[in-house]
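Supplementary notes for students who missed Thursday's class. We covered one full example, reproduced here. Read the sequence, then the structure, then the short commentary at the end.
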Amino acid sequence: MGLFDSFSISASGLSAERLRLDIIANNLANMNTTRTPGGGPYKRRGAVFAERLRLAQESGGKQLYQGAGVKVQTITEYSGPPRMVHDPAHPDADASGLVAYPNINLTNEMADMISATRAYEANATVLDAAKGMALKALEIGR
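Structure (token representation):
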């Protein structure tokens, strides 16, 4: 693994976690959205991560794959029953007075946000440590 590989791996983690935080913020912002352009309530979304691989050559000429960070493979839309709330005065209420709200749990979203924040901080720490090592290596060459 080269010196700049650690920069690339940490940067991919930072980018992926930033997108995850954006998706969580979007879920929280749409927690009470009962009508979307597609019809029905907003559906919770989440990021699915996958390992980013790169092709490398082994000393014997054999090809193998090495980890090269993380990528967002897809953004999923969770299908689940909406949260039904009795509110006959709401404009989106059905005939029985029930309104379909997104099935988004504030506690779960906040726990996911804390997890994403910690992962982002860990990647930033690794990036800073790699930068420090690169600077020390340059000082040795003086």
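Commentary. The beta strands are 45-57, 63-77, 83-86, 98-101. The mean pLDDT is 90. If anything here is unclear, bring it to office hours.
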